[in-house]
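ugh ok fine here u go
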Amino acid sequence: MFLERLRKVVEKNPSLSEVINELHKLLIELNEELKPLAIIITGSIAKGEFVMGLSDIDIVLIINEAHRHSRFLLRVIRNINVEISIYSLDEVKKAIEIGNQFITTAINSGIVIKGLEIIEELRMHSTRYSQTQN
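structure:
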């Protein structure tokens, strides 16, 4: 399901080819467990700057309602930290409006694994909001 989109990650970061299957399994687990509206891979991977042994993997999950448990999850794939940030759709919209750099960068520059339509709506929201601030 997500493997085709993950190939884009490997194109930008060839050193990740050896962990792509584990990352795929993790995304399937997160999708089944949390049922996110959208999944984005962001940070150094999205920029094509991943360095094996130094970089981590940043994932943003956008869910329908505020998460009852932790906002952050940490997993490890072959000694690579996978940092998972969980936000509700409303939290993401508010973060865009206050100029949260992590969220705006994830929305505008991240690699969308799931929920392209929602991310496109959030990108338009980000563009509209930034235009009203200038």
